[in-house]
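Co-fold these.
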Amino acid sequence: MSEWWTYRPEDFLMFSLRVYERLFVLHNQALWPAQLLALALGIAGVAILLMPRPVPRRTLFVLLAAAWAFVAWGFLWQRYAPINWGIRYVVPLFAFEALLLLAFGLWRGGLKLPARWHLPRALGVALVVYAVILHPLTAALFGRGLAGAEVVGLTPDPLAIATLGVAAIVHPPRAAGVLLVIPALWCLGSALTLYLLNAPGAWLPLLAVLVAVAARLLPRRYPPARRKSGSAKQNAR
Amino acid sequence: MSPRSHQLSRRTLLGGLLALAAGAAVPPLAARAAPNELLTRAAPGSGERLPLVGLGSWITFNVGNDPVLLEACTAVMAAFFADGGRLIDSSPMYGSSQATIGHGLAELDATGQVYAADKLWTSDPGGGPAQIEASRRDWGVPHFDLLQVHNLVAWEANLETLLAMREAGEVRHVGITTSHGRRHDAVEHILREAPIDFVQLTYNVVDREAEARLLPLARERGIAVIANRPFQQKRLIRRLADKPLPDWLAETGATNWAQFILKFIISHPDVTCAIPATTRVDHVRENLAAAREPLPDAALRRRMADYVAAL
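Predicted complex below.
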């Protein structure tokens, strides 16, 4: 695009807030009662994160990968792309995130969840709890009604926030950082879109990114004896 | 009742309403001087007479496959045609807007009434014909009346494609578009050199750069002008909303800010039509009503521009 620097961000908005909000209403109508299953699976994911020794970690990553694949096809491609042609270029990123989750999650010696509680884990779990339980309620809070609720596993924002939460927790840090990039970019894009649409709650995805990055950067304290032993395996499962 | 018969019945109903409203609101063409007549202006090159207000589709008609919003857009189109509107403008860049227009045209059985203005928007000129054909299928029209190179994207090659189509009788008129006052030098060059029928550019009571060179040049070259972004995508309306309308508003023929802005644009003798976009039936009627007598003369236009500038 020529002279792209002369455009305002809102010049790139192709649709209205009314159309954007109706996407979720139609999506929910088409998928009902899948929301109940998605919520149940989301709560199961939270339960895995709350386990003192989260053994079934692979289940969590498989669930997340399946959700990224489904949202790529079921929401982005089927619903969002018709009103926003740029989304066609985002769909492969969502598919790639699904593959990353599968690869890192199923790979032996891949991503692990911490066995001990520390602030980064608490922040990560808080993000996942928000994404699963509280984010759908924001639709009602902001006057859109629960018919337009954004449910984790079915729509991109809560899925990206939940993945940020998991990425804030897991080890090793480098793989976690890779896992964090696409959901963080989505949340930043979503926050910008909502801001330009003058939608309430535009700051929520942005806050989620800040919390996830802060959690990732915070030092993780381990008992000195275990650190000396150099056994990361004792701290992370 | 089967879904098919339901659809037919709705189409029949809408068509009937359209015909009724058109009959009531729009005088026959022979009575163009009648008080309620929509004013038209002839496109300089072709002589095609177009109502001074058309219908844009950026954002407003990009509603995807939402059945509720598709029907809302169809209602806007029904009111537009009923009040005498003809030119609808879209682009493959506008998401699902073309398909929405196609939905409305099919529901209203109005493909014969519309002056279909679309755009070619691709940096790969080889893919131009395929894009145009996809657009035509979305609209559901046998051919476009006007095809424009969108925002001057790859304009040399894309304009060649359009000129070849015009030569082959596959499109009646060709043109170029720009917006936001961008690339006026390139637009001027094309106006001077290329045998185009239309130019689309941004022009309104606060965006008046086109008055200096482009509008006089378009007149000199016999090129019709479509004014886009009349309300600066609502920004201008919002900016003026809480400002007092002038005491002499009645002289302009306007009854509110939207009509004030539109009347300023379409009263420029070199502007063929303005294309405001809307999602509301009352607004489309209000917009079209701006294309009725009286229109401001040159002195009143200056007063209008000065008044807005002083706010």
